[in-house]
Specification:
alpha+beta, 33% strand, single chain, elongated, seven-stranded antiparallel beta sheet, seven-stranded mixed beta sheet
């Protein structure tokens, strides 16, 4: 009759070295032997002060019983196909996800686009674009804040903001889209600015800003944005635009509820010192500024 090698008595005798040579030889020829021998050899690396046959037997039994029996639900080729599909889906979503850039107060950031076009973000600005098919039928970016674009020639390049959009083929220009501001300045080539039902074609030195839902043209003499040299310049700009630029640059809150923020400012301020910048802007306009705390400034008429 065939020996039952899974009984408690037999396994305990085997673990304790109490089997006869005949029993050992018969046991070695079974599949169970390989399994139990592997467990027994694994226990040899443990530092046990005293050999305990009963504990070893309990360990063998527990390991045998606890081992999960895995039954595959699907053929192996199904898993390979699923992995391939997962990779394809991952690549699709990677290419369709937006690539985002953002700057903090007083920061600028240079961004290289896939077609070697370059974008320099001004402080407190965000830029995003999708990499999929870039340069083939898509050169589209979204902007919140202000940025200087150096666009390589190629397919139409589109800058989208909440207040308007800019279309170009290859040129250099800035777009300012802080809060309610929408301003476009062309430094090289030709730019098409659009907002609502208004369209303006700009060439080098020409600029336009949206005021009271209408485009207001103006000219500039600079060859590059002055904020690249740590200075913000304005040409007959609404004071609300100047205040927003001060807040973004110096991380402050400026309260101008008691003054006329629609009045215009022409001039510039440096980014090196907050008080110097405030004096440069407001003293020339007969406006007093008072620090309520470290980050809050109150404006009032002199």
């Amino acid at each position: 009759m065939e020996e039952n090698y899974n009984t408690d008595d037999f396994l305990a005798k085997w673990a304790g070295g109490e089997l006869s040579e005949v029993e050992k030889e018969a046991f070695r020829k079974t599949e169970d032997y390989k399994y139990y021998q592997a467990i027994l050899e694994g226990t040899d690396i443990l530092e046990v002060p005293k050999y305990d046959k009963e504990k070893l037997f309990e360990k063998v039994q527990k390991t045998k019983l606890d081992e999960p029996k895995v039954v595959p639900l699907f053929p192996k080729w199904i898993y390979g196909l699923a992995a391939s599909v997962a990779i394809l889906i991952g690549v699709f979503f990677f290419l369709n996800n937006s690539i985002d850039y953002e700057t903090g107060h007083g920061e600028t950031l240079v961004v290289a686009l896939p077609d070697n076009s370059e974008v320099i973000l001004n402080s407190k600005s965000k830029l995003s674009y999708k990499k999929r098919n870039w340069g083939v039928d898509n050169r589209r970016v979204s902007l919140s804040g202000e940025a200087f674009f150096k666009v390589e020639k190629g397919a139409e390049f589109l800058v989208e903001t909440k207040k308007g959009k800019v279309k170009v083929l290859g040129t250099q220009f800035t777009v300012n889209s802080y809060a309610q501001v929408f301003e476009v300045i062309c430094f090289e080539g030709k730019v098409k600015a659009e907002s609502q039902n208004h369209t303006e074609i700009l060439t080098k030195g020409k600029a336009v800003r949206l005021v009271n839902n209408a485009f207001e043209p103006f000219t500039i003499g600079d060859t590059n944005p002055t904020w690249l040299q740590n200075e913000s310049s304005f040409s007959n700009a609404p004071l609300t635009q100047v205040i927003k630029t001060l807040e973004n640059q110096f991380n402050v809150i400026i309260n101008g509820e008691t003054i006329d923020t629609n009045q215009r400012f022409t001039g510039s301020f440096t980014h090196n010192n907050l008080e110097t910048a405030l004096r440069t802007v407001f003293e020339s306009m007969d406006i007093t500024f008072t620090f309520e705390n470290e980050n809050t400034i109150e404006l009032s008429k002199k």
